[in-house]
Design the sequence.
């Protein structure tokens, strides 16, 4: 693992690191914020999964999460959204290929060699994080934005007991029925839709739900609402009696201006679960 | 109007009053809490509509709302849930007749003479309240529990501009498709289901929505969940991009122990809208 930079931030440290991943077959970069408490003890960790086109950097510089994480004594990790580099396949469409890993393990050519973001986020990066930093593996929560909200929700529901809480800003909720999903799942996983189901939050909610609290924020002026389908997830959460809060926020769009506005609420929500 | 009782309560006054209603053709009793500020000025008013079997008294003594209303300087009105008295029809089923007005104007015999709770709550009682008490008609919000949540939501959506916010505890959301609804709407309004539609929150949400914020709380251990159908309202609210918050609260049932637990949040929610 290489340290690319470390900066003092709200009394803690915002670092950027890279490591060679055996899972994605390329170098991967991530951001990690450690609060002041990490100098003395292992601290809880909140994952932030980013959306389409993002690298590890977007949320790290635009979401305004460090202030609240510092107050609550929480670490934040900002992974990249896909493998990258010259030998890694890409597509001219921003919603496929580099910057658009969709948090799945691709099985189809040309993607299957590198695009294994499911295993990267759930196995490879945790191994790096918990061996190299003072992080308490028994206290983790996860959140994300848009495609990253999809990643956070699907991963949280697929690893019962690992995450105490999950939240999402404007998540892609139902990719098997969405323009943001069908094309990508076809490319990465093939045409057999039964392979898609484990990567659809609405279907996972109907089948098993999440064993902790969920917080969802959605902007009512989001330009991508038709692709996000919050109504499908809301229906599924209520039908399952899933512990959770769903909020429709009037006037807000899909940007980091929306994310940063409600970041304090999300960090406090996770802190409450992590210090329970 | 007769004063039945007035008691000091959190520095304000909890009164119980009765008046002869031309609309329901009988004497009607209501509770009214006035905060200390009402001695000097007209104060905002929050309506609380109760559920099946309740009188004006249940929420007044069990919901714990006065403490928060006093802090926020809000008045609270607790109307009865139906006409009552010896000449008023009734049914042996607790969910029809006295204590079960469903906030509609009955058109069918034997109910049509007295069971006009829609007009009572939206015309008759407001006339009494705003002529006799220091209440600011331009600042009103409305909430309710169960059948009263149904009343609050349907009335709020049907009078755009009258209420700044609406909230509900475990509301009956979709009575045209519920065991708590189809029987009563048939009895009160007849078999033509087009007459039922204006009294169904899910259908109203799909058609027009509410021009302000909505807060819904639902207990996940509510013994009546199948009749309440929060999933239908959640889906309709999100599909409409309705400003609002929906919360599924694990472990809570349908009782006033649930209502009183979250009453502070609801009063603060309304206060924010009323003092905007």
Sequence:
């Amino acid at each position: 693992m290489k340290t690319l930079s470390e900066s003092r931030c709200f009394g803690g440290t915002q670092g950027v690191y890279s490591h060679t991943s055996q899972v994605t077959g390329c170098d991967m970069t991530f951001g990690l914020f450690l609060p002041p408490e990490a100098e003395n003890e292992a601290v809880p960790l909140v994952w932030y999964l980013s959306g389409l086109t993002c690298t590890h950097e977007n949320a790290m510089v635009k979401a305004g999460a460090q202030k609240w994480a510092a107050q609550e004594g929480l670490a934040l990790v900002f992974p990249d959204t896909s493998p990258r580099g010259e030998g890694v396949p890409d597509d001219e469409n921003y919603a496929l290929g580099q910057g658009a890993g969709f948090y799945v393990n691709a099985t189809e050519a040309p993607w299957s060699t590198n695009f294994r973001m499911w295993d990267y986020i759930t196995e490879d990066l945790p191994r790096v994080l918990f061996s190299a930093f003072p992080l308490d593996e028994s206290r983790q929560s996860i959140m994300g934005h848009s495609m990253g909200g999809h990643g956070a929700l699907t991963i949280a529901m697929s690893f019962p007991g690992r995450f105490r809480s999950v939240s999402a800003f404007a998540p892609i909720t139902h990719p098997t029925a969405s323009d943001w999903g069908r094309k990508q799942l076809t490319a990465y996983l093939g045409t057999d839709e039964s392979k898609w189901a484990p990567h659809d939050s609405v279907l996972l909610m109907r089948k098993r739900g999440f064993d902790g609290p969920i917080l969802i924020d959605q902007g009512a002026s989001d330009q991508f609402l038709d692709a996000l389908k919050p109504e499908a997830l809301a229906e599924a959460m209520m039908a399952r009696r899933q512990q959770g809060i769903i909020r429709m926020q009037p006037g807000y769009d899909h940007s980091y201006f929306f994310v940063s506005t409600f970041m304090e609420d999300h960090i406090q929500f996770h802190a409450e679960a992590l210090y329970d």
